[in-house]
Amino acid sequence: MQFTINRSEFIKAMNHVSRAISSRTSMPILTGVKLELDETGLTLTGSNTDISIETKIPFSDDQAKLEQTQPGALVLPASFFANIVKRLPGETFTLTNNDGLQAKITSESAEFDINGQDAQSYPHLPEIEVTNHLILPAATLTEVISQTVIAVSKQLSQPILTGVHFIIAGGNLTAVATDRHRLAQRTVTFGESDVNADIIIPGPSLTQLQAMLDDVETVDVRVAENQVIFQLGENTVFYSRLLEGNYPDASRLIPTEKRTTLTINARDLLQTIERAALLSHEGRSNVIQFMVSDSRSTISSNSPEVGRVEEEIFAAQTSGDELTISFNPDYMREALKSFGDEEIQIGFKTPLDPFTLVPTNNETNFIQLITPVRTY
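Structure for Beta sliding clamp, as requested:
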């Protein structure tokens, strides 16, 4: 194998596939990146068994300036190889592999020899039968992921909750995540469609996918039996395994009754929460209190080890019963960030029931739910 390529364009492709490569794996070959050169272009592949990413640099890419001398394939140590390419002196570099397992990398006066592994030993990407596929704007998918993935569980003892539940039916996509302390749900309408799917995608997979969506306009989502595939533009494919099992019915967790409501700008409330959290984080319980009434509403935190903070908040509207509720400020902070600068309504039932946060227009069919902390 031998080719010459623009260094910066190669680094972009390498950054994509590196998201699927882990230094900690039971298969040593998966710490490497697979390079395969054929008559259509250069394909880079990375995998960690949970996700696999394949990106292609075609000969038709004018910016990449890919020139082929000899086709072939080789697996090179990903981190070491990437660091070398980033530090090469020239705008282009040449990689040569003459049938053995060693690659020579040259750029201007620099020359490196790297030991590789046989590409035949690299696991093949799954060949799967696609049962459903759906095209979504990348910006919409980015928003859905950022609004829901914050609520996935970090506890591996509940593996099903470490993913986001995607339900596609009747022209709607609903994404739900919960760790049993909070819940995030977002519904997107994409028009008439006969696509139906009920899948659970691991949260870490979605986090890596989200970071790759800025460079594309649309995403082709394809669902198979135990895999989901995201086609990003023409040249990059993202594979993720699916979690097996039945996701709990999250709709039962959402209260239908509100006895107290408060309408406020999400960003203004977020800043107040962050100030109160400075003190709560220093204490043992990491809890803050929210007192809501028609006359005066406050956020406060009392830590015997450190001190006390109280700040009045100025809501656009308050109605219903007076209420004091305690909660984890980190959950509240992440929920508020997902709304940006929107005006939201917070709905309470009792101090011990979960409360909800929704945009006042709720045109996006978006809801965050937080379970309060019992302090007595």
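The radius of gyration is 25 Å.
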